Amino acid sequence: MIRRYGPSLFMILLLCLSWETAVRTLDVPWYILPPPSQALRTAILRSPLLLSHSFVTGGEILLGIALALALAVPLAVAMFFSPVLDRAFAPFLVASQAIPVFALAPLLIVWFGYGIGSKVVMAAIVIFFPITVNLLQGFRSCPQELRTLFRLMEASPWTMLRRLYWPFALPYFFSGLRVGVSVATIGAVIGEWVGSQKGLGYLMIQANARMSVDLVFAAILWLSVMGLALWTLVGRIEKRIVRWKN
Amino acid sequence: MRKVLALLALALFAALPVHAAPAAEKLTVMLDWFPNVDHVPLFVARDRGFLKDAGIEVEYLSPSETSDALKLAAAGQVDLAVGYQPQTIVAASAGIPVCAVGRLVEHPLSTLLFLKGKGIEKPSDLSGKKIGYTVPGMMDILLKAFAERNGIANYEAVNVGFTIVPALAAGTVDAIMGPFKNYETVELEHKGLAPQWFELEKHGIPDYDELIIVAGKNAYTARKAVIRRFTECLGKGIAWTKAHPREALELYFAAVPEAPREMEREAFARTLPQYASSQRFDRKGWETFAAFAKQSGLIEREAPLDDLLQGE
User: ipTM > 0.85?
Assistant: First the structure.
């Protein structure tokens, strides 16, 4: 237990300690950067408020992940099997990442409204890229000999996908998913900044207008914890499914 | 001997500037937003030489977000900030050490904006409609107060953030609380839409100074004289802008070449009557607004107006 979580706990403590000392010795005003003790206290004292907003942001992220998966998996498969589609989609895939989500946000809001829809789409946009790219790379990592073997045994493309390519791609898929879920918070929060009624991003804007800087940072802490939890969860699922890796 | 001579020469040089003109005092001023026509008098004060004559060298900076300037002024990272009266009252109530030292725009620019031809004649026509607001924590509260005072019932409030034009154009909302009457109105007209608006101060919301000059408390105590000289120059800049609007706008365009000229020209015409007529704060008006802020829930603790108001 200690060996497992010790190093990260130690680093977190070290970071908080140096942050606290820096703020105190350099006399950084609380409204520029509150000390971690204050942010943490607010994060705990206002947890009912933060929790209710976290449910909204968390829901957006989970739905965003679902939508991203629904898009990424078929797309990666299609691009893998069809070089034409690969060449057709590759530029768009990359371009979709070069566009700042912030610029897209107003458009998405007009299309999908001020409700949860636009945030889910925004989260999906940032998640779907690492999944697609990794999955594609995973499919391609399958050795030629095995492909030939499967073909000699007259395996159908569907069987090859299920029994050969997919198992090879799984570890790649999970690393893509891990990257995706840890940046998903950015998509959801930016969506909430642009226009929303609830969520941690909304709370941050509201707290900022009220000069409650500690609450802004408390929301950031909650977001980090959410990102961390998702990351860990994906790791757990990967261990369950990709047993042969270890 | 040589050393002594060198030292003597040095001492002489060091003594020389005393007889020359005194070095200009430097002031950094952070704007509330990217430079726009609201700031024309500031550029006039600089580029017509009012500030230089007062022995002030000024630098204007743009923030990344509207509350940055105020916070950085309080922290002493910039000398002065362009801020909003409501925001400054919120900051003072939260305990951020700032004081208001000068005035730029003396009435609210924020409005309740909607489009013509949607059957909205009076505020109560917005009953049962969808009304957007721009800044949660500020404009939602103004909207609630506005609705209560003007008999708007059963409306749905929606945070539209900065998507003002698309939200109105697409009809996602029927009106929005927060857009500026000198800016977004022009933007909408340029998109072929016909904006109309209710002015807050004419519908039961206390009048307030939209744009003011804010200083950090420590900076104000330490540099009161130069800050006073600055606001005096701002007053001169405003007077000159009002007397020579065309030249003032040209000065601004020369200083901010990236400004969208056609739009800013119209926005400027609408801003001209709003520039502050004096640098003296209306204490009564601030008291009324502060009481309103407390009552409507904009602030929790009373704002210390005695500390806050440091005008002429």
Answer: no
Query: Domain limits of chain A?
Result: 36-245
Residue ranges per structural domain of chain B: 24-107+209-308, 110-202
Handedness of CA B69, B75, B78, B81 (dihedral sign): positive
Q: The domain B110-202 belongs to what CATH superfamily? A: Periplasmic binding protein-like II (3.40.190.10)
Pairing type for strands B130-133 and B156-159 reads: parallel
Q: Identical fold at B24-107+209-308 and B110-202?
A: yes
Distance CA(B267)–CA(B261), nearest Å, equals 10
Rounded Cα distance between B188 and B165, Å, is 6
Is the CB of A211 inside 8 Å of chain B's CB atoms? Answer: yes
Contact B159 A211 (CB under 8 A): no
Q: Establish if B297 touches chain A: CB-CB under 8 angstroms.
A: no
The third-level CATH classification (topology) of the domain covering A36-245 is MetI-like fold (1.10.3720)
For chain B, report the end-to-end CA distance as a whole number of angstroms.
56
Given a contact cutoff of 8 angstroms between Cβ atoms, the answer to whether A189 and A57 are in contact is: yes
pLDDT in tens, B23-66: 789 999 999 999 999 999 999 999 999 999 999 999 999 998 88
Please provide the DSSP assignment of B191-212 as one string: TT--EEEEEGGGTTSPP--SEE
What pLDDT is attached to residue B2? 56
Strands B56-61 and B175-180 come out as: unpaired
- Better-scored residue on pLDDT, B166 or A58: A58
What are B121-155's pLDDT values in tens digits?
999 999 999 999 998 889 999 999 999 999 999 99
What one-letter code names the amino acid at B265?
R
Angle between helix axes B283-296 and B85-93 (nearest 10 degrees) is 70
Residue A36 confidence (pLDDT) above 60: yes
CB contact under 8 A, A209 and B75: no
Q: For residue range A95-134, what is the model confidence (pLDDT) as tens digits? A: 877 887 778 888 888 888 888 999 999 999 889 889 999 9
What is the layout of strands, in order, in the sheet containing B98-105?
B56-61, B25-30, B80-83, B211-216, B98-105
Side-chain half-sphere CA neighbours of B13 within 13 A: 6
**Taking the model in full, what pTM does it have?**
0.84
Element of type H or E holding B175 = strand B175-180
Chain B residues with CB-CB distance to A205 below 8 A: 135-137, 161
Domain B24-107+209-308 CATH (choose: 3.20.20.70, 3.40.190.10, 2.40.30.170, 3.50.50.60): 3.40.190.10
Q: According to the model, what pLDDT value does residue A4 have?
A: 79
CB A65 within 8 A of CB A76: no
Residue A155: is its pLDDT beyond 50? Answer: yes
Q: Does B99 touch chain A (CB under 8 A)?
A: no
Write down the pLDDT at residue A7: 87
Rounded CA-CA distance A202/B176 in Å is 18
Residue of A111, A196, A210, A217 to mutate, interface with B, max B Cβ within 10 Å: A210
